[in-house]
Write a structure and sequence with these properties.
The complex is a heterodimer of chains A (231) and B (335). In chain A, helix 2 crosses helix 3 and helix 3 runs antiparallel to helix 7. In chain A, strand 1 and strand 2 form a beta hairpin. Chain A is 74% helix and 4% strand. Chain A is mainly α. Chain B has 335 residues and is of the alpha+beta class. Chain B is rod-shaped, with a radius of gyration of 60 Å. In chain B, helix 1 packs antiparallel against helix 5. Among the domains of chain B are: 107 residues; 91 residues, Dihydrodipicolinate Reductase, domain 2, CATH 3.30.360. Classes of the chains: A mainly alpha (231), B alpha+beta (335). At the A-B interface, strand 2, helix 1, helix 2, helix 3 and helix 4 of A face helix 1 of B.
Chain lengths: 231, 335
Amino acid sequence: MRLSPDEMIFWQHGFLKLNGTIVFTWGLMLVLAVGSKIITRKLSTDLKRSNWQNLLEIVVTGIEKQIEEVGLSQPQKYIGFLGTLFLFVAAASLCTIIPGYEPPTGSLSTTVALALCVFVAVPFFGIEEQGVGDYLKSYVKPTVIMLPFNIISELSRTLALAVRLFGNMMSGAMIIGILITITPFLFPIVMTMLGLLTGMVQAYIFSILAAVYIAAATRARKPKLESEAKL
Amino acid sequence: MLIDWFTVGAQALNFLILVWLMKRFLYKPILHAIDEREKRIAAELADADAKEAKAQKERDEFQHKNEEFDQQRATLLNKATDEAQAERQRLLNEARKAADALSAKRQETLRSEEHNLHQAISRRTQQEVFAIARKALTDLATTSLEERLVEVFTRRLREMDGQAKAGLGEALKTASEPAFVRSAFDLPAEQHEAIQNALNETFSAEIHVRFETAPDLISGIELTTNGQRVAWSIADYLASLEKGVDELLKEKDKPNAKAKTPSDVTPQIAKRAYELYEDRGRKDARSVQDWEKAEREIRKDEAKDEPKAEPKAEPKPKAKDEPKPKEPKPETKSQ
């Protein structure tokens, strides 16, 4: 029994290999990109628009709204990263209804990769917003004593992100696999539906957490700005 | 080992590529489309606002114009009303003037009619009076008019009161020329004598008298001497009557609405006057008084509007009670 699609190896040449995770990821990327391309190829700026365009607009504006609600005042700047995170994770779990498909997010390698991206993105956006000095100073706030804890929290939350998503996705697939062997056919269907729900929730949690981290990193300077504005 | 680090790297790369792809094909176009739409909607809203503002402005303008129009209409109406009032006033004035002119004209006509009527009355009165006189004279003529005249004249001479008599006597005595006795008709010798005698007796002197005929006396005798005159004649009566009638007519000149056409009653008055004269026994010549009394009675009857036939029933004594009638007495006039 496979624990992750990493073990599905199609081609290997030394260090380089083409496993299931990468292949399914490419598939998802292809679907997402081509689908977007097709729909956005003839966008209407009029009041009348196609249903697909409406769907995409709802999705995009929904994501935008969520980011804004978390506390990021310029959602357009972060929608590329955070929106893609959500869409990728959601699409990965949504596609589990396709037989023979295994979600790439069920692989710890993928979730770690995503977590690492967040881990890099947080200081990236933080520094972009506040500058290097201010960003680094936020680690020693309120006191220098907090520096190790801040660093630990930085690392641990990245780990938590990766493991949470991996655990949920992997467990869903595992439970279905186990249930298939020991229960009648009805249960796996129910569990698959439950897995879809879990996947959507996980996608939401993952992207929202990433947004919160970025917001925390960029918002450190905000109160000062507000006070300046008041003056 | 659950983590395959090559896969981690590949996935991270894949993810970044996906981020770029999504940005390129999904977010940018969609957001752009939304922005465009919002801009468009904003533009349309702005356009609508502008149109609304324009409409508002036009409405205001229209309202303003409407108000102006109303005002103008009101002004015109007022003007028209004023003009109509002025025209009405003018027409009224004209009508009043016309009415005034008409009434003046009518009054004038009335006055002239009245005048004519008065003239007619006076003419008729004169005629009637003359008729009465003629009748009286005719009645007298039974004995002989001249005789009676002379008789009356002599009586008058004798009855003259002291002062007049003295004055006349003095005049007659001192006259260098003889006194004239003028009569309407040629008097016979006996009458001449009678007059001469009466004069002589009255003034106790020889009076020279010359007799003359003067038809303008109508009927009567006149003694003229040295600027003094004694007369008894129908002409005097008539003159007196005319004077009285004239006075009466002057009084009647005042418009009398109640008065019926005087010509209607004139014959009645004349008749009544004659009756009064007869009642009195055809004595005295109080013709004017008789006329006035008769007229009073007739008028009273008319006012009462009663069919009382004739005021014959009037007691005689009443007539006697009246103030002493004026009658042509032998008078003295300085000439």
